[in-house]
Specification:
five-stranded mixed β-sheet, alpha/beta, 394 residues, Cys_met_metab_PP
Length: 394
């Protein structure tokens, strides 16, 4: 059989994290619910402990360090991301917190994109300063000009492309070059594109984070995060996140494995449908602007074309100013676009998007909505929105 790295992504999605010969011939890696593993005798314990800490081996000694189910999910994600190894986490936010806390210490300086995920922002604004880490936000389209913000104590640059709610696309290769030239690391949230549509390690990222709750699980039924690192950083990150007690449950990791098998076909459908809805919205008189990285007028579109392999189903829409009652009438009567906080599942979602920014002009003047286009027939989704606009007008 060819090595996994020689396969294309769709083949990796089908076969990575599976070894039927090791599990009695089962096609799917079984669900291991295990807290305790036993070893043969006292004499072998030191060897077991050493093997459990070796990043090139997979010896299980206690459930908090993983089991065959979580290991299979980690192996599959690492193969897709192009990193050395992945670490499964209980949520996307846990992946962000675990990775960042593993890489910084008191006295360090961290640069964070101004359009990062809202709960990540709270981590950077509230938690890190309490540990003695100084945090500074930068405009998401700064690119190589971030060099002017680098200091001797800058340890980490945190990126998210495209950014939450406003969907600016950052110049990840430029951020990586500047960070590395100053002895810093680049950490990126790759949830929106997934490793199918953006290859973080090809573009210089040192640590990639995903809220696997979204597209990797894909069915809105599990909380899951994942950190993927370079070989040089793996042991450091693994030690810290396990000391913090971070590990996902076996059931959620198994659901992540199940979701991976159909990620390719789902993402391609999300992409087609979301682009159709986004283009329809650009012609609506009620719409001021559509924030979709694949559309030419979205900030960073040229970078999207250069670096990304596709677009997912999540994007933003800025409406012309309307009374709150009209906006609520539009939203509350929708049948196919439910109002919910997550995204990445098979269903369509919509919500009023709120955000905080440090830099003037970063947020639009009109109502900002975030849409996730699911797997429904695009004609039905457009008809649902069309009826919503009729309610808004009246």
């Amino acid at each position: 059989m060819e090595p996994l790295n020689d396969w294309r992504d769709d083949t990796r999605l089908t076969h990575a994290g599976r070894d039927p010969a090791s599990h009695g011939g089962t096609v799917n890696t079984p669900l291991y619910r295990a807290s305790t593993f036993v070893w043969p005798n006292a004499r072998t314990l030191p060897d077991y402990l050493q093997r459990a800490d070796d990043p090139h081996l997979r010896e299980h000694i206690y459930g908090r360090n993983g089991n065959p189910t979580t290991a299979a999910f980690e192996d599959a994600v690492a193969a897709l991301e192009g990193g050395f190894r992945s670490l499964v986490m209980p949520s996307g936010l846990a992946a962000i917190a675990g990775a960042v806390l593993a890489l910084v210490k008191a006295g360090d300086h961290v640069l964070v994109t101004d359009n990062c995920y809202g709960n990540a922002r709270q981590l950077f604004e509230r938690v890190l300063p309490e540990t003695g880490v100084e945090v500074e936000f930068f405009p998401p389209l700064l690119g190589s000009d971030i060099a002017a913000l680098m200091r001797a104590e800058t340890r980490l640059v945190y990126a998210e492309a495209p950014g939450s709610n406003t969907f600016e696309v950052q110049d990840i290769p430029a951020l990586a070059r500047v960070a590395h030239a100053h002895g810093a690391l680049l950490v990126m949230d790759n949830t929106w594109a997934t490793p199918l549509f953006f290859k973080p390690f090809v573009h210089g990222v040192d640590v990639s984070i995903q809220a696997a709750t979204k597209y990797l699980v894909g069915h809105s039924d599990a909380m899951l995060g994942v950190i993927t690192t370079s070989e040089a950083l793996y042991s450091q990150v693994r030690e810290r996140v396990r000391l913090l007690g971070y590990i996902a449950g076996s059931d959620d990791a198994w659901l992540g494995l199940r979701g991976l098998r159909t990620l390719g076909v789902r993402l391609r459908q999300h992409q087609r449908s979301a682009l159709a809805v986004a283009r329809w919205l650009t012609a609506r008189p009620e719409v001021l602007k559509v924030l979709h990285p694949a559309l030419p007028d979205c900030p960073g579109h040229a970078l999207f074309q250069r670096d990304f392999l596709g677009a997912s189903g999540l994007f933003g829409v800025v409406l012309r100013p309307v009374p709150e009652a009209a906006l609520h009438a539009f939203l509350d009567g929708l049948q196919l676009f439910a109002q919910g906080a997550s995204w990445g599942g098979f269903e369509s979602l919509i919500r009023i998007a709120h955000g905080r920014r440090r830099f003037p002009g970063a947020l639009p003047d009109g109502p900002l909505l975030r849409l996730h286009v699911g797997l429904e027939a695009v004609e039905d989704l457009i008809a649902d929105l069309d009826r919503g606009f009729a309610r808004l007008r009246t």
